[in-house]
Amino acid sequence: MKWCFAGLLLLFVSCSNDEKSIKIKGSDTEVNLAVVVAESFHIHKPEISVSISGGGSGLGIASLLNGTADIANSSRRIKEEEMQLFQKKGIRIDSFVFAQDAIAFVISDELPIDSISIQHLSAILKGSYRNWKALTGIDKPINIYGRQSNSGTYDFVKEILGIEFTPYAKQMNGNAQILEAIKADHSGIGYVGSGYVTKDSGNGLKVLSIYSDNHPHAVSPLNREMIAAGKYYFQRPLFQYYKSSSFLKIKPFLDFEKTKEGQLIIQSSGYYPIL
Fold this sequence. Notes:
Layout: E1 21-26, H1 28-44, E2 49-55, H2 57-66, E3 71-74, H3 80-88, E4 93-102, E5 104-108, E6 115-117, H4 118-125, H5 133-136, E7 143-147, H6 152-161, E8 170-172, H7 175-184, E9 188-192, H8 194-197, E10 205-207, E11 209-211, H9 224-228, E12 235-243, H10 247-258, H11 260-268
Parallel strand pairs: 1-2, 1-3, 6-11, 7-8, 7-9
Antiparallel strand pairs: 3-12, 4-12, 5-9, 5-10
């Protein structure tokens, strides 16, 4: 059997013609999950090849627009200016929410803090707090590890908190790079998709529970019951955008994601199924 190679992160699948080939690009948060789903999908539909690559939600949507992707994985809603670009080309698009994510804020397990308020978190990310002393009693500078501006996670955190990130925040290429940076930097803090932290639990990292000054009960992004109840402040839908004209081509893959098997894969990967 021959194998296809495409993109930054790739599922190896059998080559075939374009009508039997689905190209998925976009969100770094979704990319590993999409690969695992596609591997299982290929067992059921070996005649359909699926290639997966990351690069950020913005890249995925741009690739859908220019015709180099059939599905754009996006961890945020499409922006109005992006919609206008599709409209100018006369392209109608639709979306499918295939899973939920809970953004986890991660620090070194050497820092003596287990939870943080939304208000203090905002102060850190916009640069009002530059030292851990006020929160932990330890005199250490706060180093922020975040995502680049084409990331859906970057946009989501910024918008839900209503802040602009401090220019001192380091912009990392992806979730895995953020975690590796915090393992090496014991005064760092970063944010990643929940599926990434389940694999790194107890590996020198700590996931902070989040609370509000108005609602002091702290909630972890790893608490499935609270996520199902919609109680975690940073939970969000994970989108897949596609051209309406391509629906029949990609429908088998979307249908598989909705199956019991697809939903179990989502759950076992550290994300949350759509109930």
